[in-house]
Design a protein that fits this description.
Length: 423
């Protein structure tokens, strides 16, 4: 099935964030993206409901092909009357079996509508699966980014802690005042506050991810992945060509087939069905028997199902408009996601190529010069803050890139091949 193939391809494409090598003992504590995706698909209640809907549609498909049941009737005439018709002396008993024969292709139209309904339910499940994969990948990227922020802030705290002995030596040598120790401690404690906020944000993201993969409480301590891998996305036209194959749009093929069959079914209702019967009659008065036959056809004098035909015609006609509206909405979402992805890619690439090297070089120069007395503590702290800000800015851009990439792959329903220029 096409939607299933695309969903599997999406899951493979989102492995853009590979897990680092870990020891077997700790592998159960580190969640990889592929593990998160498989658990999310296996546990999501929306997919379970979609599977049940396919089963229900299949049941309706089986029922649509059933023939009307034959009807068995028994009649007793000329009994329990007066005079010679007292009791059962002159009774006539009839046993008859009748069968309704549907005309006008009613059964075929009913079966076609049921088959199209099954296809539509399968496409709906495919769309739901893509959404689950995209939401899980986005949550994974946010969790990985929050984890990376914690590591960066921990490094910043350690770096500032290492300044304390150097400050102490400078004060003892008379090169700095004791107020610089308090200033350095203030910078360290401020960073510790940011670290506490970062850890809380990581725990919140971790808990959200655990809910998406069907866990009441997180069973993993960390997530494993390479947040730094990025690449230039394909053109917008390429993305839109793929988005038009999204199950949200392709399902309208099955919907249109279903509504066309419902129209044929409504038109067939104007053709009356025939009920034929054959029976056996016994005359108690002279103890004779006879065969009887019946044929009945309703006369379509008043009800030719015109209202039903009008309804089915209008419902079929609005399918194209519904698809056009869905495609327009999808175009807006793809365009918005594409622009966000391009912006995040450019921001991450430029920050990595230009801002971070300069900030790192400036900090190393000021730190080396501070030890030699050429820079003040304020200049050192400003250089360290600039480096931390650039690093955190890159992390935010990378998180935005991967979260938007997951959303865009969910909209297009396929893997995106990225340029390796910025890997």
């Amino acid at each position: 099935m096409l939607f299933r193939t695309r969903a599997l391809a999406l899951g493979a494409a989102l492995a853009l964030l590979p897990a680092p090598a870990t020891h077997a003992a700790s592998s159960t504590r580190t969640l990889t993206l592929s593990q998160a995706l498989s658990r999310a698909v296996a546990s999501h209640p929306g997919l379970a409901a979609a599977d049940r809907e396919i089963g229900a549609a299949s049941g309706r498909g089986v029922q649509s092909g059933a023939f009307p049941n034959p009807e068995l009737s028994f009649e007793l005439d000329n009994a329990f009357g007066s005079k010679e018709k007292r009791n059962l002396d002159a009774a006539e008993t009839t046993l008859q079996i009748s069968q309704l024969f549907e005309l006008g292709g009613k059964r075929g139209a009913r079966m076609a509508a049921a088959a199209a309904e099954i296809d539509a339910a399968r496409w709906d499940r495919g769309a739901t699966r893509l959404q689950v994969l995209a939401e899980t990948a986005e949550a994974f990227a946010r969790t990985l980014g929050a984890q990376r922020r914690v590591v960066e802030l921990e490094n910043q705290v350690e770096d500032l802690d290492r300044l304390t002995p150097l400050l102490q030596r400078r004060v003892e040598a008379g090169a700095s005042s004791s107020a610089e120790i308090a200033r350095g401690r203030l910078a360290t404690e401020t960073t510790r506050v940011e670290l506490a906020k970062g850890r809380a944000a990581f725990q919140a993201a971790r808990r959200e991810l655990s809910v998406l993969i069907g866990e009441r409480a997180p069973s993993f301590a960390t997530v494993g992945g390479d947040l730094a891998r990025i690449g230039a996305p394909p053109s917008f036209d390429v993305l839109m060509a793929r988005a038009r194959q999204n199950p949200q749009l392709t399902r309208f093929t099955a919907v249109k087939a279903q509504r066309r069959a419902l129209l044929a079914q409504a038109q067939a209702q104007a053709i009356p069905d025939v009920t034929a019967g054959v029976g056996w009659r016994h005359y108690r008065e002279d103890r004779s028997n006879a065969v009887m036959a019946s044929l009945s056809v309703p006369l379509p004098a008043f009800d030719r199902n015109r209202g039903g035909v009008i309804e089915a015609t209008e419902t079929l006609a609005k399918t194209d408009a519904e698809r056009a509206a869905a495609e327009r909405a999808l175009t807006v979402m793809v365009g918005r996601a594409y622009d966000a992805l391009r912006g995040a890619y450019d921001e991450a690439r430029l920050t990595r190529a230009s801002v971070l090297p300069v900030a790192r070089e400036a900090y190393e120069a000021v730190r080396s010069g501070y030890a030699e007395g050429r820079y003040s503590l304020l200049e050192l702290l400003e250089a360290r803050a600039a480096l931390s800000e650039a690093t955190l800015k890159e992390i935010d851009a990378l998180v935005s890139f991967h979260a938007t990439l997951a959303s865009l792959e969910g909209l297009t329903g396929s893997a995106l091949v990225l340029s390796r220029r910025a890997q």
